Automatic annotation (TrEMBL):
Keywords: Oxidoreductase. InterPro entries: NAD(P)-bd_dom_sf, SDR_fam. It comes from Alteromonas australica. Belongs to the short-chain dehydrogenases/reductases (SDR) family. It holds the Pfam family adh_short. This is Short chain dehydrogenase. One of its GO terms (molecular function) is oxidoreductase activity. Transmembrane segments: none annotated.
Length: 124
């Protein structure tokens, strides 16, 4: 099974990766997990934990607001695995402010990551 998790270095994405590895342990088919995130330090930590659980995991830096980063991610997965079986479009942010208090630029940033980031990854 070949799994891509965006935003997989911390929080919910990391929890999904760890649970996937736990549930997959002992199965005949191997588990390949790609952690795509902007936080390399935490991504590497997550990969080390996944590897200790028996998953074949690797980290790749990917800013999902960047077409180039997303295309590099897609190319890497195609070269390394021949594609993916499952994608968790998990990367996301929250503004932390109210609708009226946050600037349009802040909302554009949130939209670019939470909506367009998912579109970029899914299309690649």
């Amino acid at each position: 099974m070949r799994v891509l998790i965006t935003g997989g270095a911390t929080g919910l994405g990391q929890a999904i990766a760890l649970k996937w590895a736990e549930k997959w342990a002992g199965k005949d088919e191997g588990l390949d997990i790609c952690i795509a995130d902007i936080n390399q330090e935490r991504g590497d930590e997550t990969v080390n934990t996944l590897s200790a659980q028996g998953a074949n995991a690797f980290y790749i830096h990917c800013d999902i607001t960047s077409e180039n980063d997303v295309q590099t991610l897609a190319n890497t997965l195609e070269t390394r695995w021949g594609g993916v079986d499952t994608v968790f479009n998990n990367a996301g942010v929250a503004s932390g402010g109210s609708l009226l208090d946050e600037s349009i630029e802040q909302w554009q940033w949130v939209f670019d990551i939470n909506v367009l980031g998912m579109v970029r990854v899914s299309r690649a």
